[in-house]
Give the backbone structure.
Amino acid sequence: MYCKYCGTEVSPSHIYCAGCGAPVSTERSVPFTPEVIVAERPAVYVKEEPKTCLILAIVFASVGLIPFINMLLLPPAIVLGIVGLFTGRRVGLKVATAIILTISLIVSVFWMVPFFSDLDSEDRGEWYIDYELDEFERPVGMEYMTNTEAFEGKIKEISGEYDLEAYVIVNRDGVDLQLHHYYGSSIRVWEYTVFNVTFLDENGTKHYTTATMDPEDESMHLADWTLVELLKTNETVQVYVAEQENDEADTYLFTAVRGNFNDVYHDYYQGVFISAE
């Protein structure tokens, strides 16, 4: 060992340094061992899946099975369901959500299609008073009343069955039927033609009349006021038109809807209409 003051080598058995006389420490140096601190590993927090969206989606979709309520609750149920399906981890809950949403969508279609069909039917039952215009957009001729939306029906031809659009025109001279092909053009004839017309009321009773059509006209003129009288007392009247004495000719079938017919008919014949002056 060496003296810590002068650096002289000193025997471990000496008490004093032979070089400088300083006392020699008898304590043995203990090697320094650094303290090793082992840091504890922080606990890993696993966030629980956001299942609230899925649960709400199931609740909304389930309640949405009730008629008309589904129109209000189904949209948020779909949104919540999509969010939950993309963010959730529980397969069972996701599958349940998908099944409930699918059932709710199917039920909603069955409820909403008739609902909107009824709305469309109401539109087809609207009647109004109109008048013809000349080339200067001035009212001319006689006022008439007709249905706002075309009555839908079918044309049966040799080649098949096609869509038909029909308008009923009521004026002071009588009742006309104006029929249109599915592509928009009016049904015309090449010569003076007579048609057999059958009306079927809501009681299943058939009423018969005829209609005539000139090549220069776009309307069939009914022989009497049967259709008007039936529309006064029936919500719907089925109209069947077939060319007389020609079994191979096209036939036309549509349903006329009363709607506000009585009110407009009353106004028309009371003189409450747009003047042609």
